[in-house]
Amino acid sequence: MPDTPAPAPLEFGLDTFGDITTEPGGRPRAHAAVVRDVVAEAELADRVGVDAFGVGEHHRPDFAISAPEVVLAAIAERTSRLKLGSAVTVLSSDDPVRVYERFATVDAVSNGRAEVILGRGSFTESFPLFGYSLDDYEVLFEEKLALFAAIRDADRAGEPVRWRGTVRAPLEGVRVFPPAEHAPLAAWVGVGGSPASVVRAARYGFPLMLAVIGGDPRRFVPYVELYRRSLAERGAAALPIGVHSPGYVAETDAAARDELWPAYQAMRNRIGAERGWGPTSRQEYEREIAAGSLYVGSPETVARKIGATVTALGVSRFTLKYSNGTLGHERLMRGIELYGREVIPAVRALTAPRVAAAAP
């Protein structure tokens, strides 16, 4: 196995799917209001020192964001330093040409801060919505990722795109506009735990974003090793690896656990019923906080847990999925402030020995 590369500078992100929150009286907030809330949340993240902000794509009633790049363009105009990404763009049911064009446009608006995270997505509503069959689930992602990689490589070289596949018409020497101002456009592949997907990301030369949403995060160590080995076997340089996991920060451990629990329970049971899972319990919830991939607690507790994950996996970015079902906007804003002002500095201090030990 190749030597583990020296860690890249550690970055911290926040992700949201634009979860439909509730008003103080318990009424669901309008989708349009949630979109505006997300823009305000990103503004706060920019002010308190968060490095990256991602918005996911969904096409269902419990999430407000179906067009991430439109929301990111709005955020770009009201922020100055955040990297702005999707979490994720469902490439299988989209057109890679249009995806590249839209994110190259966000990149121009944001002065080079756009990122796209490409994935299958954790829900499948976009397939029938846009006229795709789930029978083609694998081939759609494989071929469209190959096409996106071809567009990216052509943009970097300043050359026309040439590509052939089975899921859409070929491209024979065409150009995609606008080109990324500083080509290639920053792009990651989001992976939920498939070794084949890890190898595919390495094959096309994309940084890897691991969606670690349950269980001990250390179980992903083999995926990190597989990715690095796959890159080395191709003679490719090391690329960034990130982790995306859910969580919530409040002033104390008890407050964080008690405030999140009702929203978490409702969200988990709603999605679980769709997927054939049994209902969750407070005991299961507490177990996931204690030993799994739910980062819930005071700034000190969350920082220790993030630090342990970063050290175990050797990643260069940790992204907290900070929105959780109906948990209200004001609590999300408070959690963002604690994450930026207290959690991030604490994790940097905890992981400083790792960085120092790796220095030449």
Descriptive terms for the model:
single chain; 360 residues; alpha/beta; TIM Barrel; 8-stranded parallel barrel; two-stranded antiparallel ribbon; 11 helices; 12 strands; 46% helix; globular; disordered N terminus; disordered C terminus
Tell me what you see in this structure.
This protein is of the alpha/beta class. It has one domain: TIM Barrel, CATH 3.20.20.30. Helices cover 46% and strands 16% of the residues. It is built from eleven helices and twelve strands. It has helices at 31-47, 68-76, 96-109, 126-129, 137-157, 195-204, 221-233, 253-275, 282-291, 299-313, 329-358, and strands at 11-16, 52-55, 83-86, 89-90, 114-119, 161-163, 171-174, 186-191, 208-211, 241-249, 295-297, 317-321. The strands form two sheets. An eight-stranded parallel β-barrel has the order 1-2-3-5-8-9-10-12, surrounded by seven helices. Helix 1 packs parallel to helix 11 (329-358), helix 2 packs parallel to helix 3 and helix 10 crosses helix 11. The chain is globular. Residues 1-5 and 356-360 have low confidence and may be disordered.
